[in-house]
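User: For a benchmark we're assembling, each entry needs the component sequences followed by a predicted structure for the full assembly. Here are entry 17's components. Please fill in the structure.
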Amino acid sequence: MAVDAGAFEAGPPGRRARLRLSGLFWRRPWLKALALLTPPLGAFLIVYVGALAVVFISSFWSVDSFTSELKHTWGLANYRVIFDTSQPYLHIAGLTLKMAAGATLTDAVLAFPLAFFMARVAGGRTRAILFVMVLLPLWSSYLVRIYAWQTILAHNGAINWALNGAGLPDQHLAYTNTAMWIVYSYVWLPFMVLPVYAALERIPDSYLEASSDLGASGFRTFRSVILPLALPGLVAGSIFTFALTLGDYITPVLVGGTGSQMIGNVVYDNFATNLPFAAAFTIVPMLIMGVYLLIARKLGAFDAL
Amino acid sequence: MRRVRKRHVLGVVALAAIGAAFAVPAATVHASAKGSSGLPTKIGKGEGRLNLIEWPGYSYKSFANKFQKQTGCIIHRKDAGTSQEMFGLMHANGGGGGGQYDLVSASGDASLRLIYAHDVQPINIKLIPSWKQFLPVFKSPAHNTLGGVHYGVSLQWGPNTLIYNTKKVKPAPTGWGAIYTKKYKGKLTVPNNPIQIADAALFLEKTKPRLGIKDPYELTRVQLAAAVALLKAQKPLLKRYWNYAADEISSFANGDVWMGAGWPYQTLALQGDKHPVKEIIPLPSTGWADTWMLASKAPHPNCAYMWMKYVSTPQVQAKQALWFGETPVNPKACPYMNKEQKGSCAAYHLNVPLSYYQKIKFWKTPVPACGWKKSNSCMDYNAWVQAWAQIQG
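Assistant: Structure for entry 17:
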């Protein structure tokens, strides 16, 4: 011991300090954890949670109607406007919710077979190609892709061209809620495919073999073994698709029609002139997401993340 | 105006936003001589830099490069796609341009808001020599001059026009009634902007004289409700509300929209691409006028004054007008316009008699003060924004 202590004291000062620090961390492991976690946790708490807290607090403030100056007086006026049925905001929240649910369901139905094929059928090479194809759109600008859909859905766009070629009449898809639903289903699809793939890939082959050994039909195996095990992946994917739709405001502007206002558009229209109202309306999708996440946790979605 | 050259304006805006995140902090202000009113009496030495919030392309290089060479003021641009974005940018970071921006090319629906929010400061109009040449209506217009105090210098203007597809809309429309009637249901478009309520009010001024509308920007509660009712009835007739000029252009180009309210910019862009469109300006009509306004915390005021002075000169006025499809406020620009593009002075209505301008109701932010009623009972801009949200919802 004495010899060790002598060596400890004998080194150059910088080395000595380092050794002392590492000794300290060794004796007090919680200190090491604290040192490692402080920067990310600090950033998370101050920048992320702190910002949310400010949004929440400011949603109770009001604004001078002409100068847009903040008035730091507390009140529920903003929420009263949102929940006033003579105002359009409940309807807008309802449409946003419908869009989110529609895109999520569509993506789940589209993503499941694709993810299943990638995880359990395709060979290494095919799987790699499919992966690249699923991810490729994410490398291009989201905005460019929506503009592309504007052209595809337009009166003289690719869809009507194809329909006419098949002898069918024109469809008036451009600038409608249907157009928004199509675009949302398209842009968020990769966010559904990946978690479903991860969930399906983790199912051991032996489970499927056991199921068929016990005489279950293919459909029975799917219903009783694959689907329950893939459900957390589906729910995890739906968290992405749902949350992304709730916050979006560009798609309604570019492909939406006259009744296509969503929560994001109202927030965007108000943040410069009436920040507290925008903040209050931001709380609405957060509440929706909170309820959704609670349900998702019950369904085991976080096991697959 | 929110005229936008490029299709992917949002992308441009997004890039600009990233650019702004790295923007250089404000440089030190060189003190310039100040008069008794607190306004500068002469333009001091340039600060070497000028930060603009502008409609995309408002400091186009064909005339901005010469300015940079002459003055040494290097221009840094921040594009805004809507009046709302402009106001938001000016009002952010403590307001007054946040100590970052010098000038904003505000339209009439934002300019009074900027003044009342103290985001812009008074200027000494005597330092802009070309101002004396301006058309009288643009010297001290209500949208940028309050009680004789100038908060900026008028720049360009344009009427709101009725654009139509000549192949589909027959006979050609003759008045604004065309966008409120069922004949072209599902093929119409109007801007997504609360100031659009003024267009409805102006239409009602003629068709429903009993409402007693005197000024489409100064509406009582009853008058506003009537305009909202008209716009609510219009909504099922529309294909869409357009947000960016490029959106209206593409809707006309791909055949989804046959007729709608817009600006000469869209008509020129569509005609340039050989689309069969024409426009009419049924008078009375609303119109917009833009103003370069000086941010109250402008870090480079001398360069800002030099820019206001430069863009007011006839040559530059002509260049910008032709580049954008808008009309100068300085009629001396007429010969320069004709030199660059034959007949353009007349095409842009710069040679019309003064009575013409009286029939164009230029955008101004609605405020509670009612000039014609001599009271404070008019509906303010926030009421308009809420009414517009109700129409849209």
